[in-house]
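Exercise 7.
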Amino acid sequence: MRVFWSGLCLLVLAAWLTGCPGTGSEEQSFTINIRNRAVQGDMDVLRVKQGDRVTLWWMTDETVTIHLHGYDIEQVVKPGVSSVFTFQAYATGRYPITAHAFGNLPAAGDQQEIPLLYLEVLPR
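Solution. The predicted structure, written as tokens, is:
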């Protein structure tokens, strides 16, 4: 009997430590295309669930700095080159994704934020 309980405890501990596949987290991937300084298509809000692994593929016709607020991910995206943000959606809420600069990138203090779309992370 002692062996049974010890084995069961080890199984439960192993499942907990490995994130237990029954948590329901998923891979979510979005391709976002920016043309004429606006997101193309019907993409105002990207919705994912807490715990999801999120990949955002970016394409643009003009050099731009993209910033995902709340997760503090920021990257320069250049024309003709796919850029990617990959992260775990750990914090629930609604987060703006903004462009900090288009075209020739200004000095750090001269950036104007332009809202592009929102990321909504819903509780699981």
